[in-house]
Specification:
Layout lengths: L3 H7 L21 H15 L33 H7 L2 E11 L10 E2 L1 H4 L11 H11 L1 H5 L5 E4 L4 E5 L3 E2 L9 H14 L6 E12 L5 E3 L7 E3 L1 H15 L3
Antiparallel strand pairs: 1-4, 1-5, 1-6, 2-3, 3-4, 7-8
The structure holds flavin-adenine dinucleotide (FAD).
Length: about 240
């Protein structure tokens, strides 16, 4: 959308300085609070899957044809030596949820300029290095905490706001007020959202490899680890196809 009016028709963004936007009709927003609770039932209705909750798998006994280990960022319980040798580590993200002011509608999930330098897909943009340089020079503190700012709306009208990225195996249990403030300040630079009441602050942690999008390991044969839920579907499909299931 190279006409700012097209952006303003879809999204309550700040018009001052707005040049245009990118709109994707293919994106979906998943509310993890709803999906995680209902997905076991959905899966069991379609496939013969048995779930065992509150059960730690502490060993992988021989005798199975195939075992897929999807243990998230638990690198200590199963095959710890392989995880340690893989170079994989953790990333901590600070997030917030705001109560949506009455009558406010966000529309499509939104991201702004910082996000362009965060996801590798945007590397095809020839002007990206200049943007990245400008952000690094003008706002180095955003670089320091790996901040890029996105907002999305859940069905019950809450606005999910994130996020920052702090890397390393040891995750600081304390959230940093400075990070939340930086995220909100940046958000208000592009979104016309009256100063919202923040209802929740939290952080999440996931596994990531500093260089690779995903890694394949082979303790007995082949556990795999990947980056992010977006990629996980393709990785799962590839893994299952590879062993001919
Ligand atoms: C705040 C936040 C925002 C994110 N945003 C995005 C995004 O925009 N796009 C994207 O692609 N990704 C995003 N991610 C990353 C994505 O959520 C993760 O990569 C993904 O959830 C990993 O899924 P998983 O099933 O591999 O691991 P997990 O979701 O961590 O699940 C692993 C499960 O295995 C269980 N487990 C571990 N060890 C054992 C054991 N020994 N026995 C029994 N159970 C065990 C754990 O308790 C856990 O329930 C985000 C993550 C966070 C935290």
């Amino acid at each position: 959308m190279d006409d700012p009016r097209q952006v303003l028709e879809r999204s309550p963004v700040v018009s001052e300085g707005l040049l245009g936007g990118i709109y994707s009709p293919d994106e979906v927003t998943v509310d993890h609070r709803l999906i995680l609770g209902s997905s076991p039932e959905l899966i069991q209705a379609r496939w013969p899957v048995e779930f065992r909750f509150s059960t730690a798998v502490t060993t992988v006994p021989p005798g199975f044809d195939q075992v897929f280990i999807c243990s998230g960022d638990d690198f200590e319980t199963l095959f710890p030596d392989h995880w340690a040798a893989s170079g994989i580590d953790r990333v901590k993200l600070q997030m917030m949820a705001a109560r949506s002011p009455s009558g406010f509608q966000l529309g499509p999930a939104l991201a702004a300029g910082l996000t362009l330098r965060f996801y590798p897909s945007f590397r095809i943009c020839s002007t990206l290095p200049r943007l990245a340089r400008r952000i690094a020079e003008e706002t180095p503190v955003l670089e320091r905490w790996g901040i890029h700012v996105m907002a999305s709306e859940t069905a019950d009208g809450a606005i999910t706001i994130g996020d920052s990225h702090e890397y390393g195996l040891a995750v600081d249990i304390f959230n940093k007020a400075e990070i939340d403030r930086l995220i909100l300040d940046y958000l208000h630079g592009f979104l016309r959202l009256p100063r919202p009441e923040i209802a929740q602050h939290w952080h999440g942690v996931y596994a990531r490899h500093p260089e690779a999008d995903y890694i394949v390991m082979n303790p007995r044969r082949s556990p795999r680890g990947g980056k992010g839920m977006t990629m996980s579907w393709a990785l799962a499909e590839e893994s299952v196809n590879e062993v001919g299931l």
